[in-house]
Design goal:
The protein has about 260 residues and is an all-alpha fold. Among the domains are: about 110 residues, no CATH class; about 50 residues, no CATH class. It has 13 helices and two strands, in the order H-H-H-E-E-H-H-H-H-H-H-H-H-H-H. It has a two-stranded antiparallel ribbon with strand order 1-2. A hairpin with a 2-residue loop joins strand 1 and strand 2.
Length: about 260
């Protein structure tokens, strides 16, 4: 420094100290400051050269593809992240997890991770998520051969129960499919469910076949008892017979 003169720039440089954190920051090439608001250079258009959107359809169009929602358009533009992370998560879990565990995981993804397209995730992994539903339906309900629609619907019901634990429901995640069956009205009450799924016609055929197998005495007693029931007479009957007379077969038919 030259005595008798003031050089503020040189004074600043002489007193400048760069510590290890700032040195590492500079070596890594990170920005040293921010601009708020950010300064963006606007493109200058000549008259007649403006390319602004003229409708909502234009806003949902990217690369000449019209998307269904603004969110999917943003995903296509790269403005929003896609659901690839959750796809990989469910793919790995589907290898080793049970259906109930997958339903729990899917509910966590819905409530905590905000996937972009939850319905697409459901369609892709519904088979794995509901892989135990057919067994549950056959075990808990009188439905020996549940259809694919029943399996998916009951799977949605179980997942909706998990969502309600977090204060959410399926309706909070459109366009997720909604329940079509009233499973909550019959779960835990097999008698009600059996009544709702009675196969009246097939049972009538079975009853008629059994009636044809009764002997004359059994037919007479059967007519008297059923007539009393149909006419609401409220009588009490005592059925007795020795071994080998078909008493057990007869009483089963009366039930």
């Amino acid at each position: 420094m030259v005595l008798g003169s003031i050089n503020e720039i040189q004074q600043y440089l002489d007193a400048r100290y760069i510590g290890p954190p700032e040195a590492a920051w500079r070596i890594s090439g990170h920005h040293l400051h921010e601009e708020v608001p950010a300064m963006v250079q606007l493109a200058l258009h000549l008259p007649g050269m403006h390319q602004c959107p003229k409708s909502f359809e234009d806003l949902r169009t990217f690369n000449y593809v019209l998307h269904d929602t603004f969110k999917s358009t943003c995903v296509a533009r790269g403005v929003l992240e896609d659901d690839e992370e959750w796809v990989q998560c469910l793919q790995e879990a589907a290898i080793m997890k049970t259906g109930n565990q997958l339903r729990r995981l899917f509910s966590i993804i819905l409530t905590q991770c905000s996937p972009i397209q939850p319905y697409e995730l459901w369609k892709q992994f519904a088979v794995h998520i509901c892989d135990d539903i057919a067994h549950k339906i056959r075990t808990c309900f009188p439905i020996p051969n549940p259809s694919d629609a029943q399996i998916e619907d009951y799977g949605l019901y179980l997942r909706d129960q998990m969502l309600q634990e977090s204060g959410r429901t399926l309706s909070d995640f459109p366009p997720m499919p909604q329940l079509t069956g009233n499973w909550s009205a019959v779960v835990g009450n097999k008698l009600v469910l059996e009544h709702q799924h009675l196969q009246i016609e097939s049972q009538q055929v079975d009853v008629q076949m059994d009636i044809n197998r009764l002997n004359s005495a059994q037919c007479k007693a059967y007519d008297v008892i059923t007539s009393s029931i149909l006419q609401n007479r409220g009588k009490i009957f005592f059925v007795s017979g020795g071994a080998g007379t078909g008493r057990h077969f007869y009483t089963i038919r009366l039930r």
